[in-house]
Amino acid sequence: VGAQGDLASRTLVLESKRFYLDVKENQRGRFIKIAEISADGRKNQILMTFSTAALFSQNLIQFIDFYRDLDSLDPENLRQGELKSEVMYKDDKKYHMDLKENARGRFLKVSETFTRGYSRFQVFIPADGMGEFQHNLGELIDEYDNGDAEEALSAPQNKHLRIENKNFYFDIKRNQQGRYMSISEVKGNFRNSILVPESGWESFRDVLDDYVKQVKEGD
Question: Do 92 and 112 form a contact (C-beta atoms < 8 A)?
Fold first, then answer.
């Protein structure tokens, strides 16, 4: 186990807000804490593993490109809802990225939600500051990644399905035995998971395909 606690910290001032990007490490591994301090002293923060932070940084580049191509803000004709959105699923957490606008300007709302329970944490990044934010986040990831971020970018992305009143999460993971798929059923505070080794994915798919065909033919 490497050093515990704080490994690095950066401070950014974006418009009237101060942001702290802290690289930390505990027994579960390295993670990044993103804290936002408003002008009135209010504090918001979210936590990301390195693998999630790498996906977030990659998505942020796409948001920056999209933002640069937008027409200038028209306070008399504000667009309702999100200008651009993305959702990331990681283990038992869900992260929303929503680029929005109001009379004061455009901003990126980043929300961290737990699939069990309804806790939600969020930070608001001024759209004009996304480039500086991504630059600093990317440098921290490059400097302190111990393989998690690189693997996350090359691995298949996690998937989510909502069927009736249940949520299903598909996560690709790796352990000493190799790669496997975790399929989790989540309903309220209930969570049940099965693990399928990579060697069995095609057989697993074939069984599902067979059932789908049988049911369709029966109907």
Answer: no
- Give 62-68's long-range contacts (Cβ < 8 A, gap of 24+): 62/86, 63/97, 63/99, 63/108, 63/130, 64/130, 64/131, 64/134, 66/99, 67/99, 67/106, 67/127, 67/130
| Letter string b/e over residues 99-133, b meaning 16 or more CB atoms within 10 A of that residue's CB | bbbeeeebbbebbbbebeeeeebbbbbbbebbeeb
pLDDT in tens, the chain (219 residues): 344 689 999 999 999 899 999 999 988 888 999 999 998 999 999 999 988 999 899 999 999 999 999 998 888 888 888 899 998 887 678 899 999 999 889 999 999 988 665 678 999 999 999 999 999 999 999 999 988 777 766 667 778 888 888 888 888 877 888 888 888 887 766 778 899 999 999 999 999 999 999 998 887
Asked whether the whole model's pTM tops 0.85, one would answer: no
- d(C-alpha 56, C-alpha 83), whole Å: 17
- If one counts every other C-beta atom within 10 angstroms of the C-beta of residue 65, the result is 9
